[in-house]
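User: Hey, quick favor. My workstation is busy. Could you predict this chain's structure for me?
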Amino acid sequence: MSSQPTPLSSETPAAEPVTLARFAQLFTAVMLPIFLAAVDQTLLATATPAIARDFSNLHDSTWIAVGYLLASTIMAPLYGRLGDRYGRRDALLGALALFALGSLACALSPGMWWLIGARVAQGLGGGGLMVMSQALIGEVVPPRERPRFQAWLSGVFVLSSVTGPVLGGIVVSHYSWRWLFVANLPLCLLAAWRVARLPRGGGHVEPGQGHDAAGVLMFASSAALALLWLTLAGHRFAWLSLPSLLMAAGAGLLGWLLLRHERGQRHPFLPLELLRLPEAAWIALTVTLFASSMFAMVFFLPVYLQIARHGSAAHAGLLLLPLTAGIVLGSNLTGRVVARSGRPDLPPRFGLSISALALLALALVAPTGMVVGALGLLAGLGFGSVMPSAQLLVQTVAGRSRLGAAAATISLARSTGASVGTAVFGSLVFGLVSPADLHAALHAASAQATQRVTEAFHIGFAAAALLTLVAVLAASRVPRVELA
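Assistant: No problem, here it is.
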């Protein structure tokens, strides 16, 4: 591991300090897209049992989250390329339009698989909300000044995650889960009006640059097949059955063909030129592993509290508050530490160690409300150290002309981890118990079934703790980086 710090790319010109008024103009435009991108990843966490009861389908409920995350994962690098080429403002407006249409389709869903399909459509827009918002910030604010404003961005992102489960629980307890999607429509209109008032901005087009449609198609196919396999194997069919082996082999073959194709492209769909940098590669792996654990907790902890502990949706949302509040606090503390030290490579190593210990304790101790809250707070503090550091680090090594690709790299890693982590956690937990036990626990009809479901969730929490420890090892491999 190199001990030499990575300097700011020479592509980024020296810039004058950003005034608070100039930043406020940009921040008030992008904060709603950031809010929508973040809140929609946690909003349905407390609503999932109610949706499963309405549609009499708990086994496939994992795809309510996975469908959205899968589409976001596929679209993140595409938005990064389109924003770099045609302008980040226009790409963000397009993402908002798709997100609004998907939200409308979700609100009108007559069944589980219609809702899942609508969530995929919603994710096609959601994949660009965070990517383009982060890229617009990087376009205006020089790297050394970004920690000064990172607390605002992290505050909006994680405050959205905090309020998502609570709002979801309150709405589901008193009204209908469909209103969670209807509320997105006026917010999208307001966000589009604010973003449209920003300067259009120029693109960065290189000679011969294309869209790499074949790369997009292969990436979408391999990701969808891999997640479908991870979600269904273990409870719809055995891991070593013929359907499981065929799906795994197909996903692996498509992935290999994708990498071979992308390496031969001058302007590939995936940001491979950044992943060749050890700083970007290791932090991307760290983000993937961290997101696998964090999003599995955010999505399944409320389900666990409602099914295994027979809590209400509103109560489950409140018990998730310490986890998300810890993420807010951890993000803000990380921004302050990096602003003083100029070292975005250090915080994830220590923060994720705390998260791993908290998740291990969650798997071993009695799940009372006080214990779940305290351990959630500790896990959140550690999780909050990752995203601010990752964004600053990758933007530093990428340079100004590749800010979209830099934001897409981190968003792709986060979405990939969130998709895989949610799919695997659901497959693990639901594969350890029978459909009859799940149905009985969902309707509080059997104490024995509830106990078996509780034990399955504890095994899932232990697996998340182990995965977070692997993320600590990846974070320790990130070379030294200093903000210039």
